[in-house]
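lol ok so funny story. i was supposed to be doing the assay writeup but got distracted and ended up predicting the structure for this chain instead. priorities right. anyway since i did it might as well share w the group, maybe its usefull for someone
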Amino acid sequence: MAADLATRPFGIDFGGSGIKGAPVDLSTGEFAAERTRVETPSGGHPQDVAEVVADLVGKGASDGAPVGITVPAVVVHGVVKSAANIDKSWIYTDAETMFRDKLRRDVVVVNDADAAGLAEVRYGAARNQQGLVVVTTLGTGIGTALVYDGELVPNAELGHIEIDGKDAETVSANSVREKKGLSWEKWAERLTTYYRTLERLLSPELFVVGGGVSKNADKFLPLVDIETRIVPATLRNTAGIVGAAVLAAEHHKS
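and the output, tada:
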């Protein structure tokens, strides 16, 4: 049993309010032990977050297990390149090196939407789907992930494409629906414009829609008028941790 646990990577989902972690059973895509959550340190500065992450890993990860960590930002070669919803001190932080030095083990750092998207392809709504899958998370903004034949194409910031002269997420995010009190029908019209634009640009095989609002998918997804198949995400709040763990395991093997 101990040897089996040692092969299970540990995924961490770092957000503006909380940091969650759990070991993941790659054969099922489920948590191998109970998820742990702690509050994000006040200010959310990199070194303070690293301290909390080290504590989570120390308590929950097996010796030698690789760790995958999501960050709500663009991540290129382990370096954070944006900070829309985290402290600006993250920008140009070599997060992968920082966490690796702190944890003393293999670490992969990945954009949070990318991790969630990969998890949906490997274990969720897009499992066994070949070709291009576009996973979108509708929340405060619009997060996106591109996965082609099961391989992640990182940092696709398609929530920020310009449509009719406006940043797409400032028109179509779920936060906009809530703020403006849009009906499901009116919001679906905006989503139709958004997904038709992605459709023309990318010709995907499938769209997967995540974010907290996906639990109400029956109220708006059938109203989105596009040619491509579009389905709700299934992993919900576990997706970030699971996707991060998958990437950590694959990086560890290579």
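Residues 125-234 form a domain with the Nucleotidyltransferase; domain 5 fold (CATH 3.30.420.40). The chain has a mean pLDDT of 94.
back to the writeup now i swear
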